[in-house]
Amino acid sequence: MKIRTAVLTSAKRGHTHLPLQTMIDREGFPQATLALQLKELVDAGIERVGIVVAPGQAELYGEAVAAATDCVTFIEQTEPRGFGDAVLRAKGFVGDAPFVLSVGDHLFVSDDPAHPCVAQLIAVAERERAPVASVQSTHESEIGLYGTIGGVLEDRDRALFRIRKIVEKPTPTQAELELLVPGLRSGHYLCFFGMHVLTPRIFELLEADAGAEGGLALTPALHRLAETETFYAFEIAGHRYNLEERHGLLMAQLALALASPHRDEVLTRIVRLLAHTQSPAR
Known about the structure:
alpha/beta, two-stranded antiparallel ribbon, Spore Coat Polysaccharide Biosynthesis Protein SpsA, Chain A
């Protein structure tokens, strides 16, 4: 299967500024975070991107995506009814094609700039011809922030796992009982990275939950997907940076700078800054 469609969710209320935040890319040029995300998708072969936004955001984001307007469609989520509802809004846009689902409040930095995170994921999904969730080995002290999977190792060389169970933000005790994955370091679990390749089957599963109180979540639908068909997890060679966390933008910017050709210059400046800030006040 070929993957040429993507959905980027950016409808979270109170975080309108994040997609417009200016970052310095690996080449040293300023770009909005939304533009960085779009570039990585387009460079990976994506031809159509649906951006799920809250009312009024499309106008704000128009300038940030000006260079890619031919491939971008804005999809409005009229009310904040949850992440699952934001994904469901894209059903008509996606049609019957497999698609990348990515979150707009993260930046993803690959360990190898020649193989961006989304390109790694797409390659696995096209080879396996099945839905794939990107995951990252995460210490138990942080799993309360992420959807976490339980499963079995399918192929160690390709960092591929078969998902058996998914729990949203588990406790360490629950994870130890239900989500251990053979082959990981002690105290580590596989948590969602922030992007998936899915098929339109996910919309059927979300629609089945559409009447639930308290908003529509995505994780229960993903869990049922794993129960009913082959659903893989792939450990990305890279790192996710949640922009809405405290110092999240700073950490993402540092990661981009350290992954750039200007790494040595950046490290030198960081060392000078550390020396300055640790000097006794005069």
